[in-house]
């Protein structure tokens, strides 16, 4: 079950957000640096690490199920090492070993530097090892154990195999201070902490060296970058006259790493949509005309209970500023249905605001209480069947809306960053526009993943555009 070199192989299974994807890349690189190799498949790996999500109960259930399945596989794969990290690891602490008795080790998402040592100890026979985040142990913290100058997260397979990767993620803000009533992120990711701009630039530059042409800057509430305990270095001027930290960072990265043709940031918050940010999105050529701006509800009453910090009119004002200031911008969102106390009128308010905001896409989630959050203390009184109905209604609304919006692209030529063969039809290829819209097309001779190509749009579906490469 090991390679000819005698060093065991590993596989990392990732659930959740882009930050987890980025973290998994960092963990993979740590294991490679320690002498381990990526397995050809999870079934062939000696070490499997599950990077978990805790934002919703369903995500935790999936991770627990995966861990139980892996531990049960020891009957046929003696010596298999099974580890856990991510938000669920922090939430459960050493209690996870009661849920998953055969688990080898667990560590917090900011404790990734210990992974090679944990693996060595597990291979030597130790079990049920728990390492909390350094911040929780009072030792200071850096995300995933990556210190300044060493933060080089990579996404998935390309990080481990060395293949070029056209799209990548770089974390600029750790943790969150927002304290929304339903959200467990502040408890499992820690306090808000902005990274040094010079370190961020170096990490983006490293991504560009490895082939990235589209880089997304990550933060749980990314527009809070530089707002807490942070002073922009006097040595880094803003030729474009920006004064706010996030616009200054976008300008700096675009200027210092011109190889990155597309620059994104996520996830947004309507209170972070300022005139200066809109100007940065409009005037910095690399910054994409796309923003993910979670709304969560269109009901002012529910928004107050969620402690989101805005009402529906302020949210729509942010949308108006973006649409007026950034030509062809695509705005996507998150929405929760079935929050405690959500009435039929509250739900209809959400439908109205979603239509008025004209979202290009929406990710709809059924509310589930998370232990330790304030909303978990309130009765979860919307029946599951009604949550499912509301979920389906919003998805049907979005399909109709997405179709109308995508039909407007028919007849236009769009620049696409080529991903490679389409997931649903390997004979066709796909890529993404600046607006992050998926485009499916027939490849042409000499085309490679990571290329930019112009595609003439000939057809549309609610979440996909179809066309022919312009010659």
State Rg: 23 Å
The helix content, as a percent range, equals 25-40%
Main sheet summary: 6 strands, parallel
**Number of strand segments:** 18
Task: Lay out the secondary structure.
Layout: E1 9-14, H1 18-33, E2 37-38, E3 47-52, H2 57-72, E4 81-86, H3 87-92, H4 96-99, E5 105-107, H5 115-123, E6 129-131, H6 156-161, E7 167-174, H7 185-189, E8 193-194, H8 197-209, E9 214-219, H9 245-256, E10 262-266, H10 275-283, E11 290-292, H11 300-306, H12 312-325, E12 330-337, H13 344-357, E13 361-366, H14 384-407, E14 413-421, E15 429-432, E16 438-441, E17 452-461, E18 464-469
Helix pairs in contact: 8-9, 9-10, 13-14
What does this molecule look like?
This protein is an alpha/beta fold and 471 residues long. Among the domains are: 9-139, Methylthiotransferase, N-terminal domain (Rossmann fold); 413-469, Nucleic acid-binding proteins (OB fold (Dihydrolipoamide Acetyltransferase, E2P), Beta Barrel), CATH 2.40.50. Helices cover 33% and strands 21% of the residues. The chain is built from 14 helices and 18 strands. It has helices spanning 18-33, 57-72, 87-92, 96-99, 115-123, 156-161, 185-189, 197-209, 245-256, 275-283, 300-306, 312-325, 344-357, 384-407, and strands at 9-14, 37-38, 47-52, 81-86, 105-107, 129-131, 167-174, 193-194, 214-219, 262-266, 290-292, 330-337, 361-366, 413-421, 429-432, 438-441, 452-461, 464-469. The chain has a six-stranded parallel β-sheet with strand order 2-1-3-4-5-6, sandwiched between helices. It has a five-stranded mixed beta barrel with strand order 14-15-16-18-17. A four-stranded mixed β-sheet has the order 8-7-9-10. Strand 1 (9-14), helix 1 (18-33) and strand 2 form a beta-alpha-beta unit. The model is unreliable at 1-5 and 136-164 (pLDDT under 50).
